[in-house]
Design brief:
The chain has 180 residues and is an alpha/beta fold. The chain has a single domain, classed as Nucleotidyltransferase, domain 5 (2-Layer Sandwich), CATH 3.30.420. The chain is built from nine helices and five strands. Strands 3-2-1-4-5 form a five-stranded mixed beta sheet, sandwiched between helices. β1 and β2 form a beta hairpin. The two termini are 30 Å apart.
């Protein structure tokens, strides 16, 4: 593993979406930058998003149409969010899901972003839901299915797993035209 992979900060992400299909949209995103040496938070990016449609699974995530009425659209935050992610290794509980939605949103915003290979706490760790994983490791998960709460719980779960699988981690790369 190259030095840049071991020294890159990690960013624990979680998205809440209008549904599960490729046509659904993100209604909330949370990203917590973590120093992989100390496993401490160094920065965070959290926002509700206006999906330009109904919020979908309100019974799951608790986000109503009224809550996102005045929220920014992903296109409004895309460049700032790309700068936040750039050079950091993505971490999520079910990374494929969150990464897929982020790739689509960046594409819709007209930005190219290589999200790299990150670390999935589900795939490389527990193979259980986040709630079950937290229960198993005695981690509090207050406010489940809200992006910040899930990202915080995933960050704590990561502390149990960060020694296991790091050889193929690859940070996010944003081309310069994406960042400015």
């Amino acid at each position: 593993m190259s030095e840049s992979h071991t020294s890159a900060q990690w960013v624990v992400i979680d998205t809440e979406t209008t549904g599960l299909s490729k046509d659904d949209r993100i209604v909330e995103v949370a990203a917590i930058a973590v120093d992989p040496t100390t496993m401490t938070e160094v920065d965070r990016f959290v926002t509700l998003l206006q999906p330009d449609r109904d919020t979908g699974a309100t019974e799951v995530h608790g986000i109503s149409d009224e809550m996102v009425q005045d929220a920014p659209r992903f296109t409004d935050i895309a460049r700032e969010f790309a700068r936040f992610l750039d050079g950091r290794v993505l971490v999520a509980h079910n990374l494929k899901f969150d990464q897929g939605f982020l790739e689509r949103e960046f594409e819709l915003a007209g930005l190219q972003l290589e999200l790299g290979r990150g670390f999935c706490t589900w795939r490389h760790g527990t193979m259980m839901t986040l709630a079950k994983s937290c229960e198993e490791h005695n981690i509090a998960l207050d406010g489940a299915h809200r992006a910040a709460a899930d990202a915080e719980a995933t960050m704590q779960l990561l502390t149990f797993l960060h020694q296991r699988h790091t050889a193929d981690l690859e940070p996010v790369r944003a081309p310069e035209q994406t960042l400015f």
